[in-house]
Design a protein that fits this description.
The chain is an alpha+beta fold. It has helices at about 30-40, 70-80, 110-120, 140-145, 190-215, 240-255; strands at about 5, 15-20, 45-50, 60-65, 90-95, 130-135, 155-165, 170-185, 215-220, 225-230, 265. A hairpin with a 5-residue loop joins β9 (about 215-220) and β10 (about 225-230). The protein is globular, with a radius of gyration of 23 Å. It starts with a strand and ends in a 17-residue tail after the last strand.
Length: about 280
Amino acid sequence: MVELVPFAVPVAGDKTLLVWELSSGPTAEALQHSLFTVFSQFGLLYSVRVFPNAAVAGPGFYGIIKFYSAGDAHRAQKACDQKQLFQTSPVKVHLGTGHKAVQHNTPALNSSRCQELANYYFGFNGWSKRIIKLQDLSNLEEREKEDIVTPLQKQSLKLFCALEVVLPFHECRSPEVGMAEEPLDKLEEGSLFLLKRKVTQKLAIQKALTDAFQKLLTVVLESGKVALTYRPCEEVTDARTEEELQDFIQVCGVWELCGQREEECLSDFSSEEEEFRLPELD
């Protein structure tokens, strides 16, 4: 059996486990920790959530666990159903009943989740990321307006980033671009301006990194070995603006000619990222 694992939010029913008859004694937070400890042994988890039972069902809790891999979810269900696990009474573990999701309709993972998934399947040393170009486009817009002076309160910061995700053991490179724009308030000067610029730069890098991962598919073989392939073009939503495409073509052309130049390292931008909300199950 071969499974394709995209860098996307897992929404398919065959990647979701429903856990019933959790004890009413521990708190929801304690149960969430216990569920994570047990089920993370079977594979990387996207989320573990615990909810109180409906009034008609009596006291207690139920849990919803999402795996990135359907194979991991199946193994966990078979191993844990009707077992006591961490409590004195057995729990019921069933696979979700939702239909298999179409890949191009699933939300993309944010950049920190993409890195977590890449670390799990390829190892911390099995992939890298590097900036090809990072450019402030705010001043370019000012020059185009020439004599037109824009009030500060109507100005905005616009940062462009071109980077690539490199997987050397799979001889794979995935270049992408990202653009971020943040409005400037008239009071944002000095250190506040530098902070806003840093945030905008971070957003541009995160967007480029997320889009670079979207072009890749992790191939999990029955033996447990991992391969890599590209997603079909029609499955990857291309939301680039014309300006992004032009910059991307120019950057990639220069990069190919100057491939021996010194690389610019990426910083760790994984903190303080907002996670996607999962769709509620019917």
